[in-house]
Write a structure and sequence with these properties.
Layout lengths: L1 H12 L3 H14 L4 H22 L7 H15 L7
Helix pairs in contact: 2-3
C-alpha cells in the first residue's frame, strides 16, 4: 500500500494546477473539513498563482491607494455614493 500511495502522489503532482486544486478540494471535503478550510486553501492557491504572475512580469501590481482612488472616483461619478477621502 505504501508504494501505491507514493505512485498516486507522483501521478497527482504531474496533473495541471486546476486539476490538483479540484482534487485537493475533494479530498479536504472527504476528511470532514469545513467549507471554510476549503475556501482558505483555494485562496492560498490563488495567492500563490498571483504571486507567480507578478514575479514573472506577466502582470503589474497596483498600489492600493491608486485602486481605492479609482474606485471612489467611479462611485462618485455614478452618483451612487459619497465617500470621504
Amino acid at each position: 500500500m505504501q508504494q501505491t500511495l507514493k505512485e498516486i502522489e507522483s501521478a497527482i503532482l504531474q496533473l495541471p494546477e486546476p486539476a490538483r486544486a479540484r482534487l485537493a478540494k475533494t479530498l479536504l471535503l472527504s476528511l470532514g473539513e469545513g467549507e471554510d478550510s476549503v475556501v482558505e486553501e483555494l485562496w492560498a492557491e490563488e495567492a500563490e498563482h498571483r504571486y507567480r504572475e507578478i514575479e514573472s512580469g506577466e502582470v503589474t501590481p497596483l498600489l492600493s491607494e491608486d485602486v481605492l482612488r479609482e474606485a471612489r472616483s467611479r462611485l462618485q461619478d455614478r452618483g451612487t455614493v459619497t465617500i470621504p477621502p
